[in-house]
Write a structure and sequence with these properties.
Rossmann fold; two-stranded antiparallel sheet; 36% helix
């Protein structure tokens, strides 16, 4: 019975995965899932996810196919009929919980994302207790109940003291079994994601929502590739500052835009906290492509070339379309950096472009 339940559960999970993959683009472009995210789980609303089965209607309801009827009888015009309020339940959405790891796996399969090869030296070491066997002595917190029970049962049967009509198993000291373990040093590949966003007046709520949705999926994939991921958030107009996640997505400023201020702060964060030999570094910058001056753009290109690109796995620039932005900055990046540089750009014209943008950023496996 237990095996049958496990088979049905696996089959159900496969149906759920198929439904999610089928509508993945719709889930990605909607922010509803982000609001349903817990620490390790996310709830996904799916319509009518059930195990396939036959459904039978009520008997003797009449009509062609049930009861009296002759070949050629008119089935009706198909027009809706007026009547009283119904007494049957309607179709309801079913919320299915997935782990973030499962969600990342579905994202990777559907977008055909390559696994990331960590760069740098794995100097961050974590100690992990690994259970390796069973022994006769140990603390009570490590007592292995099943092995102890089996040993006591085996002893009572061999001694002839086991009574099937009164199956009481009483372990003695010699029956006790305990888990044994050893502590191992496990190298950890850690990563930091530095999100930067232009919050000048031209970046409205719609543009920020696009960034919020895309960063959720970027985080989901990167966290599936590394044991530890930190996130830092930088906002800028003419001046850059570090903020928390909530402020990052809600702040709206006005005034000019100096992108170099964000890149200077990004380089400082790397200098102060994230040595490239120990960290995999992923800066993401989102803007509408409008910069204050040509001189500031020149400063940005110099910072990228000298301070940032040599030390990061990949620098990603997403240009969110805005009716107020010039869109010039991405053209300047294309002119200065070629496909061999670890810089990736993506033009995000709206929510429907988020899927392609995620593929642009993560499709190289860096």
């Amino acid at each position: 019975m237990s095996q049958k339940i496990d088979q049905d559960h696996r089959r159900f999970r496969e149906i759920v995965r198929g439904k999610i993959k089928q509508d993945l683009k719709r889930y990605i472009t909607q922010g509803e899932m982000i609001g349903k995210r817990g620490k390790d789980m996310v709830s996904i609303p799916l319509p009518q996810v059930e195990m396939p089965r036959f459904r039978y209607g009520q008997k003797q309801t009449g009509g062609v196919g049930q009861g009296d009827g002759e070949p050629g009888d008119d089935l009706g015009s198909g027009e809706p009929k007026k009547g009283q309020a119904g007494d049957r339940p309607g179709e309801h959405l079913v919320e299915v919980e997935l782990t973030m790891e499962e969600l990342a796996q579905i994202l990777g399969e559907e977008l055909e994302l390559p696994r990331i090869e960590p760069r740098g030296k794995e100097r961050l070491i974590a100690k992990k207790d690994r259970y390796t066997g069973i022994r006769r002595t140990g603390p009570e917190s490590l007592r292995h109940f099943r092995r102890t029970f089996k040993q006591a049962l085996r002893r009572q049967i061999s001694m002839g003291s086991y009574d099937p009509k009164n199956p009481v198993i009483v372990p003695i000291r010699d029956d006790l079994r305990y888990r044994s373990f050893r502590t191992e040093a496990v190298p950890q590949s850690s990563a930091v994601v530095i999100y930067m966003m232009d919050v000048s007046g031209s970046m409205g709520d719609e543009q920020k929502e696009i960034v919020r949705i895309e960063s959720f999926w970027l985080d989901t994939w990167l966290r599936s590739q590394y044991q530890g991921v930190e996130t830092r958030f930088v906002i800028h107009d003419a001046v850059a500052k570090e903020v928390d996640r909530d402020t990052f997505f809600r702040t709206r400023e006005s005034g000019g835009t100096m992108i170099s201020s964000a890149y200077k702060l990004c380089a400082k964060l790397i200098d102060d906290h994230y040595p490239p030999s120990e960290w995999n570094i992923y800066p993401f910058h989102f803007s509408d492509g409008d910069n204050w001056s040509v001189d500031d753009t020149v400063a940005c290109l110099a910072l990228l070339r000298e301070k940032i690109l040599p030390r990061v796995n990949q620098f990603s620039y997403g240009q969110v379309e805005s009716p107020y932005g010039s869109g010039q900055f991405i053209k300047d990046l294309h002119e200065q950096f070629g496909p061999d540089d670890n810089l990736v750009t993506s033009e995000i014209k709206g929510k429907d472009a988020i899927v392609d943008s995620i593929r642009d950023f993560l499709g190289r496996g860096r």
